Amino acid sequence: MNDIDVSMIKSSGAAPSGKVDFSRIRTIDGLDVRGKCVLVRVDFNVPIKDGVVGDTTRIERVLPTIKHLLAGGAKVIVLSHLGRPKTGTMTDTTLKPIADKMAELMPGTKVSFIGNCVGDEARRGVEALKPGEVALLENLRYNDGEKKNDPDFAKELAALGDIYVDDAFSTAHRAHASVEAITHFIPSYAGLLMMAEITALDRAVEHPQRPVMAIAGGSKVSTKIQVLTNLTARMDQLVLAGGMASTFLFAKGMEIGKSLCQPEAVPIVKEIMAHAEKHGCELVLPNDFIVAKELKAGADWHVCKAGEIPADEMIVDIGPDSVADLKRRFAEIKTLLWNGPVGAFEWEPFGAGTYVLMREAARLAKEGKLAAIAGGGDTVAALNNAGVSQDFTYVSTAGGAFLEWLEGKTLPAVAALAVSRA
Ligand code: 3PG
Ligand code: MG
What we know:
The protein has helices at 8-12, 57-60, 63-71, 96-105, 119-127, 144-147, 151-158, 192-206, 225-232, 243-251, 266-278, 320-332, 352-366, 377-386, 400-406, 412-419; strands at residues 37-41, 48-49, 52-53, 75-79, 111-114, 134-137, 163-166, 188-190, 212-216, 237-240, 282-284, 288-292, 301-305, 314-318, 335-339, 371-374, 394-395.
């Protein structure tokens, strides 16, 4: 992945996204942190099974911020949530295994774990910390105040440090105490990953190099109505693929066999079509598909033209003509925003269309001909399967926050960084 120039937002005088004026966000660039206690909010909401951390991407992606602060002589206190625990300590949502993983990923740095994020235990742990050392605090969501955006809880957290750095873009759609309320009580800055995420999304959605295309895949139209509505106003081309394509075909009166379809969404689909037309956005529907009688790995399949899908078959992937058409289109666009696989990639071989297209986008991105930006859990999993995450221009660590940005919403934690002057 190419590095994002974090100074770009300020130097370009980028216009506000939604109601957020980026130029008001303070970055850690040049910030003096020597001897200071810096609270760093990260998103370590990572998969853990039997105490073993699975995918470490979210941990690795915040290490540049932590290392930058340590190199500047700071003591670093790391805050995160994990899962959705109710109340009290739950063994399967403790952050302890992540402290061990951090220590492994940061050889030579002392990483300790503190069993509470507030109270005496937290205060004592933080007092014992020396410059150049890291401590990870226990799950923020063990405290009710976190999700309630409680100012008293936020004040307690803020009191542990001198400076606050938010590097948890993937949590920015939550107005929670450790990302929103806290910014009212302590000088607050955006971390390197936070800046990279919002810069990449701003470049793709609000200030793209044109022509700009978005690929919207995934299964249900109903969960992406806002995304589709917002994107039709901003993109030059919007590719509708994956399960949601069938509802569009159905709305156009075409045969879709037993493909996943939401007939109740037809009026909305028609509105989206009209909205696209009004804004000069070309809606691109695949003109052929891979169809199968069942959705299972290794099911028999064949190629079928749009509109000719037999009654007892369903769409499982995009077809070869459509893949060729999209490859041609990729060569003509400057920016590609990808959210959602174009086929049922969980069942082999129906990830083929997605992987071929991802590899083509990655090739163009690597040659500097295309800015390719992707986000969302399934999309990132598919990119990893295709083996090309490294070649995309930017891959977001966010799921829900990425989607809400595509919906055109203002993310509360990003807004808090822009107004905070504590
Ligand atoms: C995520 O994994 O998308 C974020 O950490 C947010 O988690 P949440 O949906 O439980 O708030
Ligand atoms: Mg989530």
